[in-house]
Write a structure and sequence with these properties.
7 strands, binds guanosine-5'-triphosphate, 327 residues, Rossmann fold, 3 domains, alpha/beta, binds magnesium ion, 12% strand, seven-stranded parallel sheet, single chain
């Protein structure tokens, strides 16, 4: 199987789309394929501009992603799209009927599209998405767009993959903005106010703008780092008609250039590497904990902690000692 992976990687690197698709599937299946893929391709990655789009269900993220891909295509850029489907019925199930999974007219030429289940993993974006981004990057995609639904942690996790994060909102979402304030608004490098053909787009844009100012003042008052000379632009779009899309692409390009110019690209690259190592470490740990002898000891220690005979940290130390010994 692992020899197959190496062979598929060679074919993918030579431009074979079917090999690319099979590798993403293998990454989704997890197991030993994932490390085998990363071993083959990691050194070939790091070139793509990875853009994460997040926002409330039904905001028009998919439509926007397709419009962006078409615009990048017109500019001669090679684009890959990953749509992370929430597997939880809680986040987005209600708007399923309204979803644009794949537009009827199909992908714009040269665009690779892939939908992936998030599997509801706590902590959001799973390894498979990270691997898929790496695969598209190694395949030669210059821009990778990732759509995640802004209803859980995955939208925050997307930052551990993306260079540029776009938060999509829609007019009249006063309450949602309140909700988003709590977390996801802060992660935006660029704001898109989509459905600008509806009432109240400029009011929503003004609210966002006021919120960015307040957030910055609060951050300054708390002595936080200066955001480094980047003010997140707010772009109004009508994704269904392609309006505002060239402006949005221009904003994404400006952010990419800002990252390069300011040295932040390096810092981001380091942060992404740290997140990848941490994920890999936890995966390895989970794998080892699943070994029958260790799993048995694990259960016993949990019982001990439950019975107040042992505290959780001591149990963890004992387990780690056991893992070291079982190497
Ligand atoms: N009026 C208007 N409708 C839009 C616009 N953009 C998208 N829509 C519509 O909004 C609905 C939802 O669009 P999607 O692109 O599926 O939204 P989404 O954010 O990807 O939705 P989920 O992935 O389900 O969270 C569809 O019926 C789109 O046609 C827009 O700019 N204006
Ligand atoms: Mg969608």
């Amino acid at each position: 199987m692992l020899r197959d992976i190496a062979d598929l990687c060679r074919r993918m690197l030579a431009g074979d789309r079917r090999a690319l698709a099979r590798l993403i599937t293998a990454a989704e299946d997890g197991g030993a394929a994932l490390p085998a893929i990363m071993k083959e391709i990691h050194s070939r990655t790091g070139r793509a501009h990875v853009v994460g789009l997040t926002g409330p269900p039904g905001a028009g993220k998919s439509t926007l992603v397709w419009a962006l891909a078409a615009e990048y295509g017109r500019l001669g850029r090679r684009v890959g799209i990953i749509a992370v489907d929430p597997s939880s019925p809680f986040s987005g199930g209600a708007v399923l009927g309204d979803r644009v999974r794949v537009p009827a007219r199909g992908a714009p030429p040269g665009v690779y599209f892939r939908s992936m289940a998030s599997r509801g993993r706590l902590g959001g974006t799973p390894h498979a998405v990270r691997a898929a981004v790496s695969l598209l990057d190694a395949f030669g995609k210059e821009v990778v767009l990732i759509e995640t639904v802004g209803a859980g942690q995955s939208d925050v996790a997307v930052r551990t993959l993306a260079h540029t994060t776009v938060v999509v909102s829609v007019p009249g979402l006063g309450d949602d903005i309140q909700m988003m304030k709590a977390g996801i608004l802060e992660i935006a490098d660029v704001y898109a106010v989509n459905k600008a053909d509806k009432e109240g787009a400029s009011r929503t844009a003004a609210q966002l703008s006021a919120m960015i100012d307040t957030g910055r003042e609060a951050a300054r008052a708390m002595g936080a780092d200066d955001p480094g000379g980047w003010t997140p632009p707010i772009v109004c779009t009508v994704a269904t008609r392609g309006e505002g899309i060239p402006d949005l692409v221009a904003a994404l390009e400006r952010h990419r250039q800002f990252l390069q110019r300011s040295g932040r690209a390096e810092l981001l690259n380091r942060a992404h590497a740290a997140a990848a190592v941490q994920d890999a470490l936890f995966t390895r740990l989970e794998e080892r904990l699943a070994r029958p002898d260790v799993a048995c000891e694990h259960t016993r220690l949990v019982d001990e902690v439950g019975a107040r005979r042992l505290d959780a940290f001591r149990a963890a130390d004992l387990l780690l000692a056991r893992l070291g010994a079982s190497e």
